[in-house]
Design goal:
It contains three helices and three strands, in the order H-E-E-E-H-H. It has a three-stranded mixed sheet, with helices on one face.
Length: about 110
């Protein structure tokens, strides 16, 4: 997928659809809200809630980091969809298992 130097909200949605098809068999529902926002006050690069994925505007000029952060949030999105995201332990066993699955599929090649 060819990305411009600055990733738009439209491209962010296209990346989600691409990653969903490639690494999640198209099974993830598209979030109601998927966009770049100012997250400086939050101290996060990405946030996943029950109906939205938000990526820090600071990543718009860094397509690889935006892609990587979206992939990270998509793991949370998947685990929430299946009732396996456990709040305070949201980076626990299930999250790590999914990250390893993506790693084995080559999702991080060229990003890390």
């Amino acid at each position: 997928m060819n990305l411009s130097k600055r990733v738009s909200n439209k491209q962010l949605r296209e990346i989600f659809i691409h990653l969903n098809k490639k690494y999640f068999n198209g099974a993830l529902p598209i979030p109601g809200v998927l966009k770049f926002v100012d997250l400086e006050d939050e101290g996060d690069e990405g946030i996943c809630t029950s109906d939205e994925i938000l990526i820090s505007k600071s990543l718009q000029d860094h397509p690889d980091y935006a892609w990587l952060t979206l992939l990270h949030e998509m793991v949370h999105w998947k685990l929430r969809a299946y009732g396996r995201d456990y709040g305070d332990d949201s980076h626990g066993y299930n999250f790590k298992r999914e990250i390893f699955r993506l790693w084995d599929l080559g999702a991080y090649e060229g990003l890390l």
